[in-house]
Specification:
Blueprint lengths: L4 E5 L4 H12 L3 E6 L6 H9 L4 E3 L5 H11 L3 E4 L6 H6 L1 H21 L4 E7 L22 H20 L2 E7 L1 E3 L10 H10 L5 E3 L5 E2 L1 E3 H16 L7 E6 L5 E2 H12 L6 E3 L14 H7 L7 H12 L7
Length: 322
């Protein structure tokens, strides 16, 4: 039986590496692409364990990608490659525009030129900005507070426009706060940073009072949702349809609660260090996942305390896991 070929961009990154692994386990042929500018060692190590090679290529390089795509003849693209740091995007908006927007435009050109009929795009809850109401549904007016969020919104617009013009099914996934093994390095999220601080017996840094909330979703749940979204889109190849889905749990977790849970897990009496709030920091964030549940018949399976415990236990043994 012929395996369907899927391209995953940003494959050596945090979320995309899980997507590559899970697609492979679901029987797909996976073309993993990354330029390795911000690769995660844990991600590369995990993919090697499954015999998956990450091809080094810059997805802004149309000719190089066309050569790779022509060989694999993909049915769809999961586009996960991006620079993701909100603060850095404020400092270097030109770099983020040149990387994120141009990359997406190049992928869309390839979809058109090679008649690839489906794309799943990993967007972000950053497009919403400071919410007018919580939980946030997909019809919430976008109001990004950073170039990162603004460019994600721009990329969404490009996808909707181009897919409408040349006939392509798409799903845009607005991911809230993903966490899990392999979210290491300078651009790791708050959960991984707090876990690492507890492992190193130092106080985690909280910006503001710690009462701000986030919707934390375990990375393996994110990957399952991506694959369900991809299979939904592949079933719509005869129609140029698209939709936007929130990817979260529908539950709010306070930043202070992460510290409390880690104190319970580790039995360490570590007190956080408070500092002034960051510019543009959102006070509350929580996804309405009604559309996700209705369309894909799925709700995230990993409770936050379970995911946090696993993260701490593995990171205690494997330094690049956190």
């Amino acid at each position: 039986m012929l395996k369907l070929s899927i391209v995953v961009t940003g494959a050596a990154g945090f979320i995309a590496s899980y997507i590559c692994r899970d697609l492979y386990e679901h029987g797909y042929e996976v073309l993993c692409i990354d330029n390795f500018s911000r690769a995660r060692s844990y991600a590369v190590r995990m993919l090697k364990k499954y015999g998956l090679e990450v091809i080094k290529a810059d997805i802004r390089d149309y000719e190089r990608l066309k050569e790779l795509f022509m060989k694999s003849r993909p049915m769809a693209v999961v586009h996960a490659a991006a620079y993701i740091d909100v603060g850095e995007s404020l400092e270097r908006p030109d770099v983020y525009a040149g990387n994120n927007i141009v990359s997406t435009a190049t992928i869309l050109r390839l979809l058109r030129d090679l008649n690839i009929k489906s794309i799943v795009f990993l967007s972000s809850a950053a497009v919403y900005g400071n919410p007018m109401y919580v939980p946030i549904d997909e019809d919430h007016p976008p109001n990004p507070l950073s170039p990162y969020g603004l460019y994600k919104l721009c990329e969404e617009g490009l996808i909707k426009l181009m897919c409408r013009v040349f006939g392509c099914s798409y799903i845009i996934l607005r991911i809230f706060n993903a966490y899990g093994l392999g979210q290491s390095g300078e651009y790791a999220g708050v959960v991984s940073k707090f876990v690492k601080a507890f492992i190193e017996n130092r106080p985690p840094i909280i910006y503001g009072d710690g009462m701000q909330t986030r919707d934390f979703i375990y990375v393996e749940d994110v990957s399952k949702i991506v694959i369900l979204a991809l299979e939904y889109a592949l079933n719509k190849l005869d129609r140029a349809e698209g939709t936007i889905l929130n990817v979260g749990t529908g539950k709010e977790i306070r930043i202070l609660d992460i510290v409390k849970l880690l104190r319970d897990i580790t039995k360490k009496d570590i007190v956080p260090m408070f500092t002034r709030p960051r510019s543009g920091d959102i006070k509350r964030s929580c996804a309405d996942i009604s559309r996700l549940r209705a369309l894909l018949n799925y709700i995230p399976q990993t409770p936050f305390d379970v995911g946090l415990r696993k993260l701490y236990e593995v990171c205690s043994m494997e330094s690049d896991a956190c």
